Amino acid sequence: MANRLAHATSPYLLQHADNPVEWWQWEPAAFEQARRRDVPVFLSVGYSACHWCHVLAHESFEDEATAAYMNEHFVNVKVDREERPDVDAVYMEAVQAATGQGGWPMSVFMTPSGEPFYFGTYFPPEPRHGMPSFRQVLEGVNSAWTSRRGEVGEVAERITGDLAGRQLDHGGDGLPGEGELAQALLTISRDYDPASGWLGGRDTKFPPSMVIEFLLRHHVRTESGGALEMAEGICEAMSRSSLFDQLGGGFHRYVLRQRPDGALVPHFEKMLYDNALLCRVYAHLWRATGSELARRVALETADFMVRELRTAEGGFASALDADSEDSGGKHVEGAYYVWTPAQLREVLGEEDAAFGSEYFGVTEEGTFEEGASVLQLPRTEVAVDADRAADVRARLLAAREERAHPGRDDKVVAAWNGLAIAALAETGAYFDRPDLIERATEAADLLVRVHMGDVARLARTSKDGRTGDNAGVLEDYGDVAEGFLALAAVTGEGVWLEFAGFLLDIVLQHFTGEGGQLYDTADDAEQLIRRPQDPTDSATPAGWTAAAGALLSYAAHTGSEAHRTAAEGALGVVKALGPRVPRFIGWGLAVAEALLDGPREVAVTGPVGGELHRTALLGRAPGAVVAAGATGGTEFPLLMDRPMVDGAPTAYVCRHFVCDAPTTDAQELARKLGG
Q1: Helices 474-491 and 434-446 sit at what angle, rounded to 10 degrees?
Q2: Which residues contact 457 (CB under 8 A, 6 or more apart)?
Q3: Region 459-488 average pLDDT
Q4: C-beta of residue 30 within 8 angstroms of C-beta of residue 38
């Protein structure tokens, strides 16, 4: 019998709809039920592509005896962290403060008032490696609740008080300047290994998308060769490693150095946000250098998103799972992506299999598990028959299509679709791929039609064209506005500038606090034990800095002092954090580069898609905004009073609406924009 999750829009929650656990969604009725029964709340937070979330579910939540104990002694609440990032952030902060670490699945026991008192992540079905079993945890928490209630209450009150009393250093009134950005670059350089091309000495390597964007912008503004060298090195290392799907394009979540031979092994889930951010980064690297590798990776990543993640409604799904069925029908991680020499021979024949094994690093011992290898390219370019390599890649991809595919989380997340819109619009413009611009426009249409509704208040998610119940958070407003602004620049359609303005006005009205600080939830959102507020990047730009970047771009488009002042107020945190922990505020550093450069405003009076418009879009000036169309068009304030010169298409490069002499020459325009 299905539980209360049967009508959820989240695929992750729907995966648990048939559990014997009597799950609730996060809702007031669940906590009222806990108060009425006088039992604790067990909060389980995860997401669809999370491998260990599935393991815990199979081992414990699908077990009848364990479920019966949970139902008797707890009210059990299941949350998709991608639908409710606010709930995830608040309780993850508590988990990390109490245990020194965090992760998913996140397991939290709390009072009926939502005050947490015991935490963990994954618990095994029996004691293992010093960890208690999940059943032992349940019994221990129940015992404490029934026999030591006063002690539990004191712990919950102390933890909640500590969280509520935390003060964020948001940098005060100062703006990041040359000194802070130079120090951030120096800190990154100390973390960079030129031999491997990776950042950091840790065994786990996540793609540092936002840091690379900062490096590219810093290079253009300061002509720093070191910044460009690091950006190129990191991008080449990622694209040649097993982090990148060498057959189908697109990036996995991260890689681990967990084998004695030092081989990097990916965690195979593919997230929309990673691929959107990296597609844009590689397109910008090509714009800066003309690198053929960057061009190929940008286009293959864009094509992957359209082919594998696009939904029937025109949006983009959240993720592909890491797991799928192997040839024996067993559900295992990476089965869709790995190859043995025997499998290569079966598809390619002996001669081409030998070529493919050498080209993709497939060995008899294997670089993954059970003699299988993850495909990767040599660390440096080697002479190879390009036509033969392309033929081998195509045949392997066709054979892989016959395998059982990983599951897909069809949930459309507003913020991540905003990132995808920006990436696809710009990649389509750079490489003359109008189909990619069309896909970006269709995703934007979906966000307006389904997620925004009639009042410009964003819904966080939708599925099958139906919105979820959860309100958009700050990253949704910042990233969707960023996507709309990129689409406006590429298409010359001012309606996207107008929609971005609607969203950013909501940011000013409902997400902004004293001294320029921003909050992750609106002032009229559901009140949790703490109003979440985090200016640091994780896998995606922080909502704080995403909003700052969109506010700055919108101000450059419109001349709005209110939006520029808000952007500047939000960037104080970059001054405080950038020099010390640049990898955790990379997007803020990238926005600060745009601020120091102006940003430049480019008005192209002439045909959309013409030579001057394309030159403007390819301009490398950090965060430059572009408006194109007929002079005097009311949709773009930048085009007002910008006439053509001698009847020819004309470009104006401005800062704060004060413009240089107009030009009709594309090469001169390129020089003005760092080309």
Answers
A1: 140
A2: 471, 472, 506
A3: 96
A4: no
